Amino acid sequence: MGSVSNQCSGGCVKSLEEPGDPTGEEPGDPTGDEEDTPLSIGVGVCKWFNVRMGFGFLAMTSSDGAGLDPPMDVFVHQSKLHMEGFRSLKEGEPVEFTFKKSAKGLESLRVTGPGGTTCIGSERRPKGKSQQKRRSKGDRCYNCGGLDHHAKECKLPPQPKKCHFCQSISHMVAHCPSKAPLSPSPHGTQISPQKEEDLHDGTALDHPKKGE
Q1: Which residues, if any, are the signal sequence (predicted)?
Q2: For residue 134, which phi and psi values (nearest 5 degrees)?
Q3: Which of 13, 54, 64, 66 is exposed most, by the fewest CB atoms within 10 A?
């Protein structure tokens, strides 16, 4: 019986000590040490950046003060850039950044210019779908003939009317000699203007008759 009381006593003491544990944790209980791990600091340049998709890669030349040769690629998203307005990076732009290692590789967490300054960014801007679709059709400015804009966007004063096919001001496209329309033959095939002229002269039909 004495042994039982001793066990009870030991158990009671143990139960009283548990709430007084200063750590409040069981030995060996993981507490997420990864969150306390200090972030790595990298230095490098922008390798490339897609302004339309909003992401790219940095070429890291130094990690925590240690030089890297060859440089290492670090993923960068526009949301991590320290700058105002439209966020992007210019190819070759020097940057400083914090980064972490993930299952996909190295990812930047905050990207700034040298010394914590704001990023410079790219001068490029993504084009709208309607604008890209319009340019892909090969449309040109009817005022100056340029391919990069329409007549309503032309910065030049109104130009003299000219042929849209050969750009000559001596005639319109309907009378352009360089774009002579082909006349259909009676059989539905296309014939050249020279052959059409021969038909009118009767030379093309001057064939020997049978029996002659």
Answers
A1: none
A2: -65, -40
A3: 66
